[in-house]
Predict the structure.
Amino acid sequence: MVHKFATGDRVIFQPGRFDGNVRAGPYTIVRVLPVTSAGCQYRVKSTLDSHERVIDEAQLRAD
């Protein structure tokens, strides 16, 4: 697997069904995490509220 995004990229997070408390919208990739059995993941920071979280690549799209 190869990561689709790089550190510094702006992305849009699209919350899933079980992400009710996570704000949708623009995020910046802070760190690319190692590929695991769960797939590609990223440490991202919201541009709206400065919260950081780990998000699966499947829930991100290019800004």
